[in-house]
């Protein structure tokens, strides 16, 4: 075999050698390997240096650059056998009722402070990214005046919430 021969290879870490394959097999294999590597990199589990990407065969279980110290929620990670899932505080019905009552109280106060409160809430409900400028335009108010009013309203809401 000469140096100029265009034979394609797939590297296998399990075997520790290059395996000669056709061009189509090489394309298909590296397409799948790249998909796996990119997914693992996105999830923060693959740290393969760029100079060794040629040696990636998509078998992450035996790869030296694959991170294995991640925990699952149900894996035991304390001396008493508790898992992360056990430590997560779940919302109780009592907390949900309290939150709902607080929301109703804040909306009631907002309606007392601003006659257009329902329109403002509706605009935010339709698109939470709606800017104060767009809302001020829709209400026919100057933007600066609207921003000052909203600041005062937030101060009132903080008093209700106890901040």
Report the helical percentage: 40-55%
Query: Which regions have little confidence, pLDDT < 50, spanning 5+ residues?
Result: none
Strands of the biggest beta sheet: in what spatial order? 1-2
Task: Give the tally of β-strands.
Answer: 2
Q: How many strands, which pairing sense, and closed or not: the largest β-sheet?
A: 2 strands, antiparallel
Shape call: elongated
Alpha-carbon distance between the two ends: 78 Å
Helix/strand order: EEHHHHHH
Global structural class: mainly alpha
C-alpha Rg, in Å? 29 Å
Please work out how many helical segments DSSP would assign: 6
Q: Give the DSSP E fraction (strand runs of 2 or more residues).
A: 5-15%
Mean pLDDT: 83
Concise synopsis of the structure shown:
This protein has 163 residues and is mainly α. The chain is 50% helix and 6% strand. The chain has six helices and two strands.
């Amino acid at each position: 075999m000469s140096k100029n021969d265009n034979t394609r290879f797939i590297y296998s870490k399990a075997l520790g050698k290059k395996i000669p394959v056709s061009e189509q097999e090489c394309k298909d294999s590296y397409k799948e390997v790249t998909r796996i590597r990119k997914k693992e990199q996105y999830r923060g589990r693959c740290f393969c240096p760029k100079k060794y990407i040629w040696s990636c065969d998509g078998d992450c279980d035996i790869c030296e650059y694959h991170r294995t110290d991640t925990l699952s929620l149900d894996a035991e990670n304390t001396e008493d056998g508790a898992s992360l899932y056990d430590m997560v505080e779940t919302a109780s019905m009592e907390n949900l009722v309290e939150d709902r009552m607080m929301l109703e109280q804040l909306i009631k106060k907002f309606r007392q402070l601003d006659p257009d409160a329902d329109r403002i809430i509706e605009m935010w409900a339709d698109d939470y990214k709606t800017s104060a400028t767009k809302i001020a335009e829709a209400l026919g108010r100057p933007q600066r005046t609207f921003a000052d009013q909203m600041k005062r309203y937030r101060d009132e809401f903080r008093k209700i919430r106890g901040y």
